[in-house]
Amino acid sequence: MICKNCKKVNSDDARFCIHCGSDLSNSNVAVEEGSVDKYFAEKKSAFIEEAKSLADSEMKQGIIWFVIALVITFGSYLFTSEGGTYYVFWGAMIYGIYRLIRGFWYKLNPESLLQKAEKEAKKDK
Ligand SMILES: [Zn+2]
To answer: Where in the numbering of this chain does the Zinc-ribbon domain appear (predicted)?
Structure first.
């Protein structure tokens, strides 16, 4: 729902606007005439914000995986410095890079997530 006072989007069961604190009980909430497009535009921008933060956490996860793989690889290298075999954790590194790139892609194209969601929704019907 949209707050009539500040025109920002709130969850449908909210009693008060999280942006300006207005009471959202019935009379104050209405999708005004001609505001349906605006309502969906705001929903969309909220979704895109969400997609961006998802992308950020995806990138963070990727970096964490990569760094951990690097640290373990380095650790195993140190332990086997006498010419033994050591392990390079390619799988985890590649997985980390993959998630980093995917996160980066989503950050650049948050709309692609929206389109993906739309496609999924159509498939369900
Ligand atoms: Zn408000």
So the answer is: 3-24
pTM across the whole model: 0.57
How much distance in Å is there from the Cα of 51 to the middle of ligand 1?
23
The reply to whether 62 falls in a domain is yes
Q: How far is the CA of 10 from the centre of ligand 1 (A)?
A: 8
pLDDT digits over 61-86, tens only? Answer: 999 999 999 999 888 888 776 666 77
Q: How far is the CA of 36 from the centre of ligand 1 (A)?
A: 17
Q: How many Å lie between the centroid of ligand 1 and the Cα of residue 115?
A: 29
The boundaries of the domain holding residue 58 are 51-124
User: What integer is the mean pLDDT of 94-122?
Assistant: 89
Bridge partners of 71, per DSSP, are none
Residue 120, both tokens:
């999924």
